[in-house]
Amino acid sequence: MALPAPSPARVFAELLPPQALTPTSAPAGRGGPPTPSGREVHVSGSAELSAGPDRARVSLRLGSREGAGGAARSSVARRLEYIAQSARQRGVPEENMTVTEDFSRVENTYQMEAEVCITFSDFGKMQNVCNLLIEKLGTSVTISPPHFYHTPEAIDTLRCQVCVAAVGNTRQKAQEVCRLFGQSLGKPLLIREEETKEWGGHIDSHLLNSPDSLTLQERIQNATAYASCRVFAVFEIKGKENRRNKLL
């Protein structure tokens, strides 16, 4: 989904001498906006950031159909143990692996099916594990394409970072305006987050009907999350810019 073009930045500066801004009292019994006590610069600015997925989930399916139930169970159990051992040896925590099993009777045979879901935070490690299992287990295991997603903590970090970046861009604009008029930027008087947008990326949710032909990088790109933020800020104008600082 394309992000609409951001609105042009607005910059308003009040460069009258401080004494020209005389506070006026609000009528008795009435509240009103605070009267400016000095010169100010009003600026709006924005920022846009993206974050790639920080988790990937891989599903492995395997099964066996035998005339004896014990043989079907044993065949699947051996492969399950090999999968778990291979993942552990490559640093995957036990809690990042879940196993579900289904045992049934089909006609005159016994069928044992199992699914292993492994969650990775290291995508290089994920590729190593999957490549090893394909090499060693061959067609006796079916490995689904990885599903990439963001943890809630990763999305919260993105939201925080884009807001901070927008505030930084806004302050830089205000500083440039002040320098243009030979003034020095003072402390912030107001910072207000006006608009935030998020698009792309899916928090731990499967994409329906996603084509299996996508490459790994294409899947990561499809799961990348984007965020934008626009803020409005008011800064104090302190006065003439220090000549020594200007030369620096």
UniProtKB/TrEMBL annotation:
The keyword Transcription does not apply. Transmembrane segments: none annotated. The keyword Cytoplasm applies. It is found in: Cytoplasm; Nucleus. Residues 20-54 are annotated as: Disordered. One of its GO terms (cellular component) is nucleus. One of its GO terms (biological process) is positive regulation of canonical NF-kappaB signal transduction. Keywords: Cytoplasm, Nucleus. Belongs to the IRAK1BP1 family. This is IKBP1 protein. It comes from Burhinus bistriatus. The gene is Irak1bp1.
